[in-house]
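== Item description ==
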Amino acid sequence: MNLSVGDLKERITPRKVLITFKEYVVMTLGMALYAFGWIGCILPAKSMGAGAAGLALLIYHLTGIPMGISVLCINGILLLIAGFIVGWNFGIKTIFCICMMSLWLSIWQGVFPEGWSLLTFLADASNPEPLFLRLLSAILGGIITGIGIAICFHEGGSTGGTDIVSIIINKYRTISYGRIVMIVDFFVIGSAIFVKDLGIDAVIFGYIIIAVLSYTVDYIQSGNMQSNQIMIFSRDHYSEIADTITSRTHRGATLLDSKGWYTKEEGYVVLVVCRKRETTQMLKIVRAIDPAAFISVGSVMGVYGKGFEPLKKL
């Protein structure tokens, strides 16, 4: 489809450019906060974490390779594998967040001296036991990284890592995202027990960090792993809305026949079921296409099928 200059001007407006710019600035700040939690709290606590960053931390303790380089390489390899298996349809925001995460990890690790911790001042003020200080640092790291991830999710981004692994696995088997995360994180964190500089306390702290991080993200996102049912009423733009949602978010859209009783006009309602953390992205898409659309959002108790929870045998 060829677009004229007029069509491009209609699609690229100053308001849309400003909104897009704001989203990427916020995601950059979210990744800066996420990386700071790792370098300023989790790393000096001699703890472990999960996902690609946790694996990068393990590599750092074994080889001394900076976390930023390892995170970029790990996610790059996962993206390459997923590209050949499920296709090259990754969002620009995911790639952007991965690059920003790697950049900020390198920046913070270069700025702060080795062993520096955000809670170092507590040791000078009250001289607590080193183990207690490490525990506090690990918990604070889980909170800070959780806030960073929640900010990224709110703008439609992703930190990659386990998300990419989930996409690859679900190509062949329908396994819930939560179960994949649990299994991958269990092995990544558990492997710290074989590292000389870490040990069993690092593993325990790692599981505490995951619990704190998950609670923080869920609290900010109001249960981001839950699902919403969105009904979009748009008289003239339902087709474009459904096409954009399907192509950009990779969620299915269903058109329902409708008839406005006041106007007696027939049309379609776009029905979408998605995770709660994806709802903001759906609403932004609808607003950009049809600001006058009427939207209904409701929580659903359970969603089963491809992309959600598997339907177990009764």
